[in-house]
């Protein structure tokens, strides 16, 4: 299957490589300029400044990779939204709360999620940080035009919520979009056979079926209900609206006009932005005729707080290791967790005497079963010599849960997507397509099942029986690893496995996680286990510079990905195509076996 998709996208890759070659000298020049710009003085913070948090960003767990295509797009004013790292965002908001130079916090804009960024669990951590800031008595102002559910989850924590008079509050509820490719593949003559272990292990359905199964509908409904409950709870508490009244309003009206939002208490005031700008000027001691108010952007505040690793000296360290994106065999690339690459980084951490404890931050739906086991094995060895705590982000399911099992403690948010303990094999064949284009594929074999992984024709019932035995064996191993790592009876694990996904709140009740909390809670617990007080937190993998990324690209250690176009129907169409292509590209397990949750679910 891996070779099939390599052939399928060979032309596209050739175009990318050709474009890279044509732009080589331009890349070098931009790299030099970027390196020079990075060495400048840190931004200055004016007195009585308001920290400005532009929500129009993608908040990811891992630090930026420094991917060349992203830097080029950013330098040209195109490409995807700005990427902010969750830990840095939360740290900056907490630091600003105690900073005498910062008099308040101002939020505006609308989140722009990319891949697994800006998930509901991550935004819950941001919301908690804003609540802590607000508790100091400093004003927190949110300006809304047409906020989404994600935006309002965070903005509603403000002490003052202001809306544009012609705006609206678009929080009609959550919807899970599931894309089924079975009918599409059939039209092209592409067959897909699926072998799975677990009633709820539905990842393969997206490739083989036309409609949703009853089991998938059951688990997705329960999951959405739990995620939505956290939204209603948070908004209800912040806006002092009873939860049942808030739910009734949403069900009755869906999208609420600004005037109606003011009437029911979702917002505090209606103002045009110039009027609010004048108020912010007065708040920071600036005259009304000044261009703007005294301010510092959240990214600039983050930059002046960031300490290079070289400045840490001999200080004890806690390493935060990021597993964000689908888990794939090999090195991976931007937005992917390469099994070999992460395992190598874990080995380096294990041998580093300065690292006293490790926090594994997981934001992954899983993927390759082999790659997941490669990572887990390195974590077992690391855990034998250092404390290991897991912090689950917006999703830590299937292979993402597989790598979390052997740890001292697992933290999750109530709306984290986790569990999905099951295994699936997704096996395409091109027999129908070959017939359509009059392509004849013949094979000569030295063994009865030598063509079991061939894409030329469907597997026979006997071959599928062989594959099902393999799937069942891996499922047993998955159950065993959970039972051993979580110190649970095997029967108890089997009762909550079956490939079913759970919310963090449900996972806590069932013993799949140990506590509700965020990344900071996990770091604090790791420090407690390591018995250290004065320590530095370092990210693994660390953010890479433009030139480091350029060297890696030229050495062909990573594959570039296409840039992203923002805006309207064109963006939505491209999002659908990218999603379908991405789901095919990550299927690179050597045996075609995956510990993967239903990655087609998109909660919106």
Fraction in beta strands = 15-25%
| Number of strand elements | 26
Structural class per helix/strand content?
alpha/beta
Low-confidence stretches: 4-40, 556-573
Classify the helix fraction into a percent range.
40-55%
Mean pLDDT: 85
Number of helices: 24
What general outline do the C-alpha atoms trace?
globular
Characterization of this structure:
The protein is of the alpha/beta class. 44% of the residues lie in helices and 19% in strands. The strands form seven sheets. Strands 13, 16, 18, 19, 20, 22, 23 and 24 form an eight-stranded mixed β-sheet that branches. It has a six-stranded parallel β-sheet with strand order 11-6-5-4-1-12, sandwiched between helices. Helix 4 links the parallel strand 2 and strand 3 (83-85). The radius of gyration is 25 Å and the shape is globular.
Record keyword descriptors for this entry.
604 residues, alpha/beta, eight-stranded mixed sheet, six-stranded parallel sheet, 26 strands
Structure summarized in a few sentences:
This protein is an alpha/beta fold. Helix content is 44%, strand content 19%.
Write the layout of secondary structure elements.
Elements: H1 2-8, H2 10-22, H3 24-38, E1 49-54, E2 58-60, H4 68-75, E3 83-85, H5 86-97, E4 102-108, H6 120-135, E5 140-144, H7 149-155, E6 160-163, E7 168-170, E8 176-177, H8 182-188, E9 191-197, H9 205-208, H10 214-239, H11 243-253, E10 255-257, H12 258-264, E11 269-270, H13 273-283, E12 295-297, H14 298-305, E13 316-324, E14 326-328, E15 336-338, H15 339-350, E16 355-364, E17 366-368, H16 369-383, E18 388-397, H17 399-402, E19 409-412, E20 417-419, E21 423-429, H18 431-436, H19 461-486, H20 490-496, E22 501-503, H21 504-509, E23 515-516, H22 519-530, E24 535-540, H23 546-554, H24 568-585, E25 593-596, E26 602-603
Parallel strand pairs: 1-4, 1-12, 2-3, 4-5, 5-6, 6-11, 13-16, 13-24, 14-15, 16-18, 18-19, 18-20, 19-23
Antiparallel strand pairs: 7-10, 8-26, 9-21, 17-25, 20-22, 21-25
């Amino acid at each position: 299957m891996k070779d099939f998709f390599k052939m399928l996208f060979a032309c596209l890759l050739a175009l990318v490589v050709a474009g890279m070659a044509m732009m080589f000298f331009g890349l070098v020049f931009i790299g030099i300029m970027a390196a020079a710009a990075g060495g400048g003085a840190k931004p200055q913070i004016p007195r009585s400044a308001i920290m400005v948090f532009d929500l129009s960003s993608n908040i990811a767990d891992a630090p930026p990779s420094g991917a060349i295509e992203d830097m080029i797009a950013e330098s040209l004013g195109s490409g995807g939204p700005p990427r902010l790292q969750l830990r840095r965002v939360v740290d900056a908001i907490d630091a600003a709360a105690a900073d005498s130079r910062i008099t308040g916090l101002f939020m505006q804009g609308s989140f722009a999620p990319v891949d697994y960024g800006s998930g509901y669990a991550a935004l819950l951590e941001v919301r908690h940080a804003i609540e802590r800031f607000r508790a100091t008595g400093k004003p927190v102002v949110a300006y809304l035009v047409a906020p989404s559910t994600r935006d309002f989850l965070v903005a509603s924590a403000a002490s003052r919520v202001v809306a544009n008079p012609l705006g609206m509050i678009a929080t009609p509820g959550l919807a899970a979009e599931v894309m089924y490719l079975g009918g599409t593949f059939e039209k092209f003559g592409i067959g897909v056979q699926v072998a799975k272990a677990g009633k709820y292990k539905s990842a393969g359905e997206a490739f083989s079926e036309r409609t949703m199964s009853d089991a998938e509908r059951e688990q997705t409904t329960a999951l959405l209900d739990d995620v939505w409950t956290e939204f209603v709870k948070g908004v209800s508490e912040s806006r002092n609206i009873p939860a049942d009244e808030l739910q009734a309003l949403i069900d009755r009206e869906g999208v609420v006009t600004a005037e109606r939002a003011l009437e029911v208490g979702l917002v505090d005031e209606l103002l045009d932005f110039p009027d609010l700008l004048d108020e912010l000027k007065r708040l920071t001691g600036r005259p009304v005729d000044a261009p703007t108010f005294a301010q510092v952007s959240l990214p600039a505040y983050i930059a002046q707080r960031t300490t290079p690793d070289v400045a840490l000296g001999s200080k004890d360290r806690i390493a935060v290791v990021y597993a964000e994106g689908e888990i794939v065999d090999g090195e991976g690339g931007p937005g992917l967790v390469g099994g070999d690459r992460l395992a190598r980084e874990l080995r380096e951490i294990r041998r580093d005497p300065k690292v006293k404890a490790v926090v594994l931050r997981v934001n992954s739906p899983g993927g390759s079963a082999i790659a997941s086991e490669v990572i887990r094995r390195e974590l077992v060895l690391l855990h034998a010599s250092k404390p290991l705590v897991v912090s689950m982000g917006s999703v830590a399911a299937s292979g993402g849960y597989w790598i979390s099992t052997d740890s001292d403690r697992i933290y999750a948010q109530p709306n984290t997507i986790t569990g999905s303990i099951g295994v699936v094999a997704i096996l395409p064949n091109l027999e129908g397509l070959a017939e359509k284009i009059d392509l004849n594929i013949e094979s000569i074999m030295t063994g009865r099942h030598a063509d079991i992984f061939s894409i030329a024709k469907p597997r026979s019932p006997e071959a599928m029986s062989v594959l099902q035995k393999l799937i069942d064996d891996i499922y047993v191993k998955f159950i065993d690893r959970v039972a051993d790592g979580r110190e649970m009876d095997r029967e108890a694990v089997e009762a909550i496995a079956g490939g079913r996904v759970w919310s963090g709140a449900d996972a806590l009740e069932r013993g799949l996680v140990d506590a509700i909390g965020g990344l900071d809670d996990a770091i604090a617990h790791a420090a407690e286990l390591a018995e250290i007080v004065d320590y530095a937190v370092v990210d693994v993998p660390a953010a890479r510079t433009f030139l480091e990324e350029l060297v890696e690209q030229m050495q062909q250690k990573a594959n570039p990905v296409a840039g992203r176009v923002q805006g309207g129907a064109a963006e939505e169409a491209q999002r659908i195509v990218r999603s379908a292509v991405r789901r095919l590209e990550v299927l690179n397990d050597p045996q075609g076996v995956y510990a993967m949750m239903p990655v087609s679910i998109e909660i919106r």
